[in-house]
Amino acid sequence: MKISRKAIALMMAAAMIATLTACGAQPAENSQENSQTEETSTYTIKIGHTLATATPQHQGLLKLESLVEERTNGAVQIEIYPSSQIGDERELVEGMMMGTVDGYLGSNATMTAWLSDFMVFDIPFIFDSYDHAFACYDGEIGDLLKQKCEEVGVHVLTFSDAGFSNFITGDTPITVPDDAKGLNIRVMESPGLMAYMSAIGANPVPMGMSEVFTSLQNGTLDGGTWPIVVSYNNQYYTVIDYLTYVDAVATSIQTSISKSVWDALPEEYQEIITQASKEAVEHQRQLLLDNTDALLKEIEASGVTIINADRKLWKETVFDYCLDAMVPQYVSQELVDMINAQK
What we know:
It is built from 13 helices and 11 strands. The protein is α/β, with parallel strands linked by helices.
């Protein structure tokens, strides 16, 4: 039987109506599917640092990793790259600003290349104790500096400390400031730390962490200033003869995420990471305090001579010199006053 064109057209129209009727909820279903996809998206945050895995700083990151992955049910994964695997400190910070590095744990001194206010942490003897330093990191001063970091593309989770710096040297013992005259001492590339070396007549040598061990070993460097845990976990104590305990500079550190990475996270995950970071940094700080004395004893047992310097003498020698070099050219008097007010 021959079917007319009109009949065919009517049959096709009926089929289309049936199809649309059967699929009437499709837009809602598609919206629901998109929503589920967003809710179950996973995020990987790669955080780099230059320290050894045994340091309290790395252990603090492991705590952060565990808390975040547990509380997001695995939706946020943190991958940690220690020992300069994905760059030195400056490379990591620059990468965060450009959005090519997700996260960073490292010295605040590195930030001074972009934000001079961070140089306040590099003024020797400005902090009297760990409690004094932590009160500054966690309070109004820390909040102010976090906001400044946002402006250069870095979201700071926490500020903490790797320990107060002490001298390690090869053939030359340092007891009083004059003993350091003419020595090549490795420092971070920060005017505050440069001023510290100038105040005692030493030659400041900026150098990446990856080069330090060999330079100490072959005598290119006469020494450096590091916290006990850094000297121990990077094995620097195996190629030096003396450690001078002076507690000059609180080696402040930060744990940060690139602002572009942070802004891409759902608010729920931002809140989880923020809270987990606070808990992780408390864990890290306690490990630091627990480990320092024990590691110092191990360093001494290895044959390194420990020199307990007169901290008051050192402060009297360098503090005003460094303060004059830093304030107000790099650091405001207001910021120094805020730190003094926390004592």
